[in-house]
Every structure is written in structure tokens, then in C-alpha cells.
Amino acid sequence: MVAVTSGLIPEGQKNHGNFLDAPKLESGITRFWLIRHALVEQNARAMLYGTMDVPLCPESLVAQQPMYNALARRLPSDALWFVSPLIRTRRTAQAIQNAGYGARGLTVEPDMVEQDLGEWQGLPHGDLPGKLQMPPHQFWPLSGNECPPGGESMMTVCSRVGAALSRLARDNASRDMVLVSHGGAIRAALAHALKITPDTALHFSIQNLSLTILECHDGAWRVVTVNELPGI
């Protein structure tokens, strides 16, 4: 038996899957650090905001400062940073960097945006059930196959997010990548990694500011952590 100490992996055994579970994450792996944006302001939370560009909650930005500090310490210092086109992800990324990580360039990745709810965006939550053609998901406003008028289904979200992750993994092999994104998109990333249906992926809890880590090993996906709450 070969001893593994301090998270170091013995030479010649780096490709053995079991050694990926050492205490310290192995370097040189294509790894995604997915973070859901911070809590949005109260009026936005009362409606289906989807891809609407709603602001963050100013009170939570102050109250959750310890979580930003913890994320700044947790994330790899040499990572590439990506955000969705929506300002709430950019503001969240900037808050993490300002909490001690340091300024880094932010690349916009359009395919990591939230589910587009089309004509249903802006509706109060209570108005949605009467418009659905299928029973809603227990943990999401609509089922994985329901497509809002002028919008997209969660099935479509899973397809675009999966394609984006595969492209980013190919273009940035062996790099750490921080993606500040959305609850629906991160669930879609898990659906891609685990090869599960959208409705199954919607059972995952993805809280604001939570961290989900995925790895890509020559096209094989590995889930390291899901919904890790920084500093808690």
C-alpha cells in the first residue's frame, strides 16, 4: 500500500480515479467552480424574473459579507472567471473579488444564463399555475419539458449549458474556471455531468452564493461538491 500524505498523489498513480479523492484537489484538472449569484432585491423575488436584469439585494450584500470572504479564500487564485450576461452575476463576481480574491477579468458566457421564461417573465408567482400546460415541478416553477411562450424549456437549458461546459472544457483544458451563474443553469450543469433528466436535476438545492464543483476528465464528468455554502 502506498501512503498518501497532505493530499499529494504518488507519481505514476495520478490517473487512478481513487486518488482524486485525496484531501487536496489535484492540480492540472479541468475544473469548474460554479457559483449561484447573490440574492436579488425583494420586489424581484415576488415575480418570475428569469432572464430579466434585476438588481441584487443591497441588505444581503452587507449581511452576507462573511460568505464573500469565505469564497475569496476557497477559490483557486489562478482561475479564469466567467459570468452570465446578467448584471447580478457580474456584481456577485466583483463582490467576491473585492472580498480579498483580487481583481480579475470577467468573460461573459451567454450560454450560462438563466432559463428564459418568455412571456411569463414579470408575472407574480401566484399567476403562473393557471398558465401551465403541465403540472409544475415540486421544486421549480414549471416542469422540465414545459416551454413558456417565447421562452425555453429546462430541457433546452440543459442542452445549451451542456454544450457550453464541453466547449469551455475543451478550450481551457487543465484550467480552473470560476463561473458565476444561476440556479437553473447550475442544475442544468449537473444534469449534463450526471446524464440525468431535467426533472431529476431540479431536485438539487442550489442556494444563493453556493458553490458547486465539477471536473472534466477526458470527457468524463465528476461531481466534487454541490450547494456548498461558504463559511457555513
Automatic annotation (TrEMBL):
Gene3D superfamilies, alphabetized: Phosphoglycerate mutase-like (3.40.50.1240)
> What is the name of the protein in this document?
Histidine phosphatase family protein
The family database entries (SMART domains) matched by this protein are listed as: PGAM (SM00855)
Q: Mind telling me which Pfam families this protein's record contains?
A: His_Phos_1
Q: Which domain of life is it from?
A: Bacteria
Alphabetical list of PANTHER family matching this protein:
BROAD-SPECIFICITY PHOSPHATASE YOR283W-RELATED, HISTIDINE PHOSPHATASE FAMILY PROTEIN-RELATED
